[in-house]
Each structure stands twice: as C-alpha cells, then as structure tokens.
Amino acid sequence: MTMSPQVPAEDGPPPVRFAFGRWTWKEVAHLLSNLPMAIIGFVYTVLMIAIGVGLAVTVVGLPLLAAGLQGSRAIGRAERGRARKLLGVVVEEPSPPARGRRESGFFVWLWSALRDPVAWRTALYSFVRLPWGILTFALTLVCLIVWPPLPYVARLLANADRVMVRGLLSPSDDLERRIAELESDRGVVVDTAAADLRRIERDLHDGAQARLVALAMGLGLAKERLADDPEAAARMVDEAHGEVKVALQELRDLARGIHPAVLTDRGLDAALSAIASRCTVPVTVRVDLPARPAQAIEGIAYFTVSELLQNVSKHSGARTATVDVWRSGDRLLIQVGDDGHGGASMDGGTGMAGLAERLGAVDGLFVLDSPAGGPTTVTAELPWRDRGLEKSAPASRTA
Hints:
By secondary structure, the protein is α+β, with helices and mostly antiparallel strands. The model is unreliable at 1-10 and 389-399 (pLDDT under 50). The chain is elongated and about 115 Å long. The longest helix is centred in the middle third of the chain and has 53 residues, at 173-225. The protein is built from 11 helices and 6 strands. It has a 6-stranded mixed β-sheet with strand order 4-5-3-2-1-6, with helices on one face. Strand 2 (321-328) and strand 3 form a beta hairpin. The protein has helices at 22-54, 61-86, 106-114, 117-146, 150-169, 173-225, 230-258, 261-266, 268-277, 295-316, 352-360; strands spanning 283-288, 321-328, 331-338, 365-369, 376-383, 395-398.
C-alpha cells in the first residue's frame, strides 16, 4: 500500500519510504538542478578570481574582485533558497557585509569586502560543486531509469547536499553576528564621541570664549580710560571681575560635563550624590560596590544616571526618586526610579534611545518600565571591569 509522507514540522524531510512521495520528487528535482546551478556558480567563481587576481596590479583589479565577492553572496542566497524549498533545510541568512562608516571612505569598504568570510565560503561552495553536480545529475538519471532504488539514492545524495549547505552556506553562528554588532556599535561610539566634541566646541565658542573676548575688550577700554577717568575705569574693572567669575563657573560646568573631578577623586558614591543634590526632587542614592570599576565603565554609569535624573527633573512630575547601584557577578547594575506620572518611551524625545545605544555599544543593556500613571523604573547593565583593589563602602543618603 502506498503511503504519503507527512509534511515535516521541523528542518528536513521525513524518513525515506518506498513510496515516491512529495519529498522524494523534491529531492530528485534538487539533484537534477545541481548541474546547471553548479555550472553557473563554477564559471562565475573562476572568472571572478581570474579577472580580479589577474588585474590586481592595476587600479581596477581589487575593486572588481570585491564586487565579485558580493555577487558570490547573491549565489549563496539563491542556493539557500533552493535548499530550503527542495531539501527542507532551513539556513539563516548571514549578517550583511560590513560596509564600514560612510566617512571612512573607499578603502575601508574595499578591505571589508575582500575579507568577507561569507563571500569566500560561498565561492568555495561554487567551486567544488561542479564535479558533485555532474555526479548527482548522472546518478539521478540512471536511477530514474532503474526506478526501485531511486528513493534511497535520492535521499543519500540529498543528505550529502544538506551537509554541504549547512557547512558552507550557514552563517558562522555567533561570530559573524557579533562582528556585525560590533561594527554597528563602533559607529554608535564614533557618532557619540563626535557629538560630544561638537557640544564641547559649541559650549566653548558660545560661552566661555565669547565671555573672555568681551572681558579682554572691557579691560582694554578700562586701560585706555584709566588716566582720563579713573572712576569709570574702576567700574569697568569691577564688571570685568564679575565676568571672570562667570567665565570660571562656565568652565567648571563644562569640565564637569566632560569628566567631573569628584568622580575621579572619590568614585561613583560621591559623584552620584553630587548629581542628586542638583535634582529638583529629593533623590535617595544607594551605592553598594566592593571596589571601583574601570574608569570607562564608571564614567558611563555616571553620565547615564546624570541624564536619567535630568529627565526626572524635566519630564516626570515626580515627588521623589531613587538611584541604586550594585554589582552582580560580572555586571554593574544601575536602577533609577521615580514616582512620577510615567508614560516615558524610547522614542519620546527624552534621550532614552540614545542612552540605550550608548550602553549597547559597550555590551550593556537598557530596560525602561514606565506605564501610564507611573512609576517609572529604568534598569541599566554594564560589564564589570576591575581597575584596582580599593574598596568603596556602601552608602545611603537623601540629597
């Protein structure tokens, strides 16, 4: 009695049976299509390498090879689709090729394309498939004539194809995806650093620099009037003295925004308490760390809490807020909460998305919980990196 195979729920076909069911004919179709696909892939790969390497001494050789490798990715995508439809092999698509940042230029793109592991593995797949395609095509034709052994031979050859597809056309699991994530994170870090530099330049130009220019002009006028009108000159000097104090305060604020001295000297406990004292609502700060983390991690934690408390002051409508910092295993955990009206979101213009990107760039996490009506709780995680043996005692205070 002829029995039809069931459609597989998972990757791959059901066990082989005597009946020539749907999966048997799919495998036969795949094996017969191996030859034309192998010819296309082999010819393309040989021409790509021959032209690219042959012209490598010219200015067009390596760019042609790089472009050809991107074409190999397209062949791999087509082969994965064919295997998915005819062999039931579900292979995830590899990560997109690393393009480099737009500002990095042509040579960064060229180097990234030439060392693309996915493209080179696909080229290897296309190169070795020609003899295999000839063999599977011939054996399948013979078995179609002989008929009885067809299901078993088809399954045997198709299983070999499944192994090749998984071995050469699958992504390298976590490695390639991690590389792609790091490429993206590097762009975020560079963009953040560039934005910070522009902010510092703008603050210097529009604030302290403009004030110091005005101060120099005022002192120059006072010097000219010193002999003719000493009282007017004295008033101008007094005004200049006031301008000096304001300029110094602006420079202190700017320096605090770059890296506060209290953070360098006394650590997160004192630095976060200083931030809390400037918040418009009472903030309870609890820091429980066995030691100080690395300076980079400490700085990110500081500025994360600083921005979150600014959001509390500006947007939350809260009466109280809390800041908790502690270590759990190899992670530094930060939790900032308030009893405000809630409703904060990652795209609400409060800078939450930017904070999440910055933490993600250093393998951190950012979780926002802010239902309508409140309360709001933000949890951030950073990787713990030691910097010394000094201890910082737990602290709890209300600022």
